[in-house]
Amino acid sequence: MRPVSPDDVGVIVDGLDTAWRHRTVGAVPIGAAGLKARLAHVRVTNEQLSVLSSAFLEERRAQAKGILGEGAYADEEVQFFLLPVPGSIAALYRWQNGYAIVLSLGLIEILRLSSVAGQLHSALERLRHSAAVKSALGAQTFARTVTLLTRMTAYINASAALSHLEARPVPDVLGGLDTATRHRAEVVLEAAIMFVLLHELGHVKFQRKGHCSGCLSADVQWEFAVPEALDVHKEEELFADRFALDAVPPGFRLALSHAACLLLQLHTYVDTLRDDGERQHPLAVNRLMAMQHHAGAGASLDTGHQALQVAISLGARLWAKGGQKASSIGRLEALRRFVESEKNFDWRPLREALVALSCGDRTGHVRT
User: Fold this and answer.
1) Of the candidates 259, 355, 268, which has an alpha carbon nearest to the alpha carbon of residue 312?
2) What is the CA radius of gyration of the chain?
3) Position 74 confidence tier, pLDDT thresholds 50, 70, 90
4) What mean pLDDT comes out for the span 286-294?
5) Which pTM value belongs to this model?
6) Which range has the top average pLDDT, 47-61, 89-103, 171-185, 195-209?
7) Which residue of 3, 92, 94, 255 pairs with 54 in a disulfide if CB–CB is 3.0 to 4.6 A?
8) 50-54: long-range contacts at Cβ-Cβ below 8 A with a sequence spacing of 24 or more?
9) Distance of alpha carbon 25 from alpha carbon 92, whole angstroms
10) Which residues are within 8 A (CB) of 16 and not within 5 positions of it... i.e. 6 or more apart?
11) How far apart are CA 155 and CA 199, in angstroms?
12) Which one, of 167, 192, 347, lies nearest residue 262 by Cα?
């Protein structure tokens, strides 16, 4: 990939909302008019957008070098375009000059939220089974900490879903976290960005093969958690997922699938909050199950395997409830009220427990 040319910025922004079913693959919920308004608001020139895209792409290449080698994301026919706007945008645009992969800064921040939520969920599970932390904090403080951590995880997941659905700015949740939790969240985030970029390059390969109907056999349906028929659009998504997995060393496939949970578990929430019955993507829970099968199950205690199992089980439970469309408006409003009620809450007391838990994980002893 190469950074977007300043001369092509306007063409791509216009094209993302023009005959998108034929020329754009992915999510551009605010359209070209919305993009123009938001770009005007942040006051960046086409040249600055090109520089920003270049810096982001070079950083991703440097971070991915250990996994993908020196030639990470090498495809000179594909331009990369980072949009400094809120909301989830991840799309492939095709026009006479080739292809453009377009991501929004909002999507990166939403993935960061999801990564933090994943780390907090993991910490919560460890905390609940840590007699040492309970003893160090005292029973009353320990119980309050578990409640706060549960609420914070729910708040972050809800905020990520609303930021995705309504292009809201993401809340700042990093200040109340310890250094170790922030570091782990950034590591998983980097792998999630790798998955997104490789997935979009998978779309490029699929498009070059001429919308290769039959690239994936309908037999893959047996892997799905929720019954779902495939069409060429859904088949393309599954192809792109598998392209991403095949682009990394076999030993990293499960880790990449784990990182993909950040995006796909978010889509599980979104799928059930706004089920309009018209989607070009397979259900996120089915994509995760297909990826798990392709990556290999892994050891039962492996972190990546456990994360996949949790995400798949959650998605299956949500869809098993049924009646999503009828109740989606009410549940979305309840989500807004919950996020609004929690946004000014002081989460900093959690930091002490997270630090104690982190120290206990490393040494087997809890520092008080």
Assistant:
1) 268
2) 21
3) confident
4) 88
5) 0.88
6) 47-61
7) 3
8) 50/3, 50/4, 50/5, 50/6, 50/9, 51/3, 52/82, 52/84, 53/3, 53/4, 53/80, 53/81, 53/82, 54/3
9) 5
10) 24, 28, 31, 32, 35, 91, 93, 102
11) 28
12) 192
Hey, what are 166's tokens? Answer: 């309504």
Q: Exposed (0-12), middle (13-18) or buried (19+): which is 154, by Cβ within 10 Å?
A: middle
CA distance linking residue 278 with residue 284, whole number of Å: 14
Inform me whether the pLDDT recorded for 217 exceeds 70.
no
Neighbours of 60 (CB within 10 A): 21
DSSP-assigned beta bridge partners for residue 104: 83
Q: What is the pLDDT of residues 161-193, one digit of tens each?
A: 888 888 888 888 887 788 888 999 999 999 999
Backbone angles phi, psi at 191, to 5 degrees: -65, -35
348/194 Cα distance (integer angstroms): 31
Q: Decide if pLDDT at 303 tops 80.
A: no
d(C-alpha 100, C-alpha 11), whole Å: 11
* Residue-range domain boundaries for the chain: 2-105, 107-363
Structure-block tokens of residue 287: 């994509």
The backbone torsions φ and ψ at residue 130, rounded to the nearest 5 degrees and listed phi first, read -105, 100
**Phi/psi at 367 (nearest 5 deg)?**
-90, 135
On the question of pLDDT at 330 being above 90, the answer is no
Strand 78-83 and strand 90-95: pairing? unpaired
CA 204 to chain centre: 20
H helices present in the chain, as ranges: 6-15, 20-23, 31-42, 46-68, 105-128, 131-137, 139-166, 179-208, 232-246, 253-273, 284-295, 303-321, 324-342, 349-363
Termini Cα distance of the chain? 49
Residue 153, SS3 per DSSP: helix
